[in-house]
Specification:
The chain has 15 helices and 16 strands. With about 475 residues, it is an alpha/beta fold. The radius of gyration is 25 Å and the shape is globular. The strands form 4 sheets. Strands 5, 6, 7, 8, 11, 12, 13, 14 and 15 form a 9-stranded mixed beta sheet that branches.
Length: about 475
């Protein structure tokens, strides 16, 4: 009788293991552990076992939060293994101006996605996009939470899962070069331009960040920088200079005096939309720029381009963003003409200055100036092909807060990569699209989409520093991931 019970039990065990494909799953898990060889294999095995659970959305919820003095939203996305959160900030043009009751919104979204697979992020995002009355911040927060859930259910690191969603191969994943806001210019108490620094010679993210931190400290203590320290929205010290040229020369003087100019290069965020003389004729607008402040006469687009082209060469700038307003087509084309002429003259003279490429690495004459294009300024790969001929733009800027979902942001990334345009991931901190959150999701996003640069603001804002810290964690835990500055 005992033998019969034993054989019955054995058969039941075999049927049970077959029902749940346990042998195949355990073989797969052991093979992955041996290949990856994680520091703590037991934790990794537990996560991989967990990923074999059939994904199921249990519930979602929202709550109002404060983000950098502005109103934000936290989305909670609960599956059958855990609850995942995503945070986003309401834009200044949003109708949400006070703490919100999310009861009806929760029920509406819950009914739309409850039967969906949380691993299918695109389907979840698409279902939410079809619903009326959902603010972009709310859909983005839920999308971020859904991506985190998908990564956990797949047993993958967050950046690996994002790479899968973006259609990248493993070799396309990389640690981007840090671009840090170092000084902001203010006029009559209002922030205008922002100056960034990029390391062109560092061999790792950590060493680049160390050099940038050293320089940031020197600049914050330099003459002309406002004291007691006044910080910009982007987490950098401020200077009350007459124009962007004067501010850039403050930075350059510190670089030269401390023998850092050979490694650290400036980027200028001109923010031309803030400099436009108003009002504009809606039919035939005449674009004029208050480049030297509101007290002095405005400059034409061409004159603005000439001033900035001269400054580009004087301070050996590596990047220039929003030099002229994108709708000012004539000035955009003139900017393209002047940058090509200057680059041609430098090559003809076999000059050693301004030799950079759009990946933030020095010593490459393939590109003399990085000019980012807003990720929402094109609709197709063919648009980028045309823009590369007619405009100065040569890389795509992705600002997550401008998209209603992660899926929409990844669409832009895929198009940029198809056109062989580098991607720069930038901070959410702008005057229109809300404050930066303390969520470090964007660090994993930058690695997962193979971004060439990671522009998250200055060291003096905790929410920006958190993202740089997360990027260092990724680079330390995954030594096989290439740093984009490595040669």
């Amino acid at each position: 009788m005992g033998d019969k019970d034993s054989s019955t039990e054995k058969r039941e065990v075999e049927e049970y293991m077959k029902l749940y494909c346990m042998e195949e799953c355990l073989d797969e898990i052991m093979n992955e552990i041996i290949i990856e060889r994680p520091t703590n294999p037991y934790v990794a095995m537990a996560l991989l076992c967990e990923s074999k659970t059939l994904p199921e959305i249990i519930d979602i919820s929202f709550k109002s939060i404060l983000v950098g003095g502005e109103l934000g939203v936290q989305a909670n996305f609960t599956t059958n293994i855990a609850t995942f959160t995503g945070i986003a900030t309401y834009s200044t043009v949003s109708e949400v101006k006070e703490l919100k009751d999310y009861t009806m919104l929760r029920e509406k979204i819950r009914d739309a996605i409850l039967s969906l697979d949380p691993v299918n992020v695109a389907k979840v995002d698409e279902s939410i996009a079809k619903l009326a009355g959902v603010d972009p911040a709310e859909s983005l927060a839920l999308s971020i939470a859904c991506v985190k859930a998908g990564a956990r259910h797949k047993g993958k690191k967050l950046y690996q899962y994002i790479a899968n969603l973006a259609g990248l191969k493993e070799e396309d994943i990389c640690i981007p070069s840090p671009v840090v806001s170092i000084l902001s210019r203010i006029v009559e108490g209002q922030e205008t331009q922002d100056i960034t620094l990029t390391s062109t010679k560092a061999g790792s993210f950590a060493s680049a960040l160390e050099a940038l931190l050293q320089c940031s400290t020197l600049i914050a203590a330099s003459e002309g920088v406002l004291k007691p320290r006044i910080l910009s929205t982007w987490g950098s010290p401020c200077v009350n200079s007459a124009n962007i040229s004067a501010a850039a020369k403050v930075v350059q003087s510190v670089l030269v005096a401390n023998d850092l100019a050979h490694d650290l290069k400036q980027g200028l965020h001109i923010r031309s939309e803030l400099l436009l003389k108003q009002p504009l004729d809606p039919v035939e607008p005449v674009y004029q720029y208050l480049l030297d402040g509101p007290a002095l006469p405005p400059r034409t687009g061409n004159d603005t381009v000439e001033v900035l082209s001269t400054l580009w060469q004087e301070v050996e700038c590596i990047s220039m963003e929003d030099a002229v307003f994108e709708s000012d087509v004539a000035s955009v084309h003139y900017f393209a003409k002047r940058t090509k002429e200057i680059a041609y003259d430098l090559k003809a003279a076999n000059s050693d200055i301004l030799k950079y490429n759009t990946h933030g690495v020095g010593g490459d004459a393939a590109c003399h100036l990085q000019v980012p294009l807003d990720g929402l300024s094109f609709a197709a790969v063919e648009d980028l092909d045309q823009l590369s001929q007619d405009t100065p733009y040569n890389c795509v800027k992705v600002q997550l807060s401008r998209f209603p979902s992660v899926s929409r942001a990844l669409e832009v990334v895929r198009k940029a990569r198809a056109a062989k345009w580098p991607v720069v991931l930038v901070s959410n901190s702008t005057n229109t699209y809300g404050a930066e959150t303390n969520d470090t999701f964007q660090a994993d996003l930058a690695v997962g989409v193979g971004a060439c640069q990671f522009m998250m603001g200055g060291f003096y804002a905790a929410e920006c520093a958190a993202k740089y810290n997360r990027m260092m964690e990724i680079s330390e835990e995954s030594s096989q991931i290439r740093y984009v500055g490595s040669r």
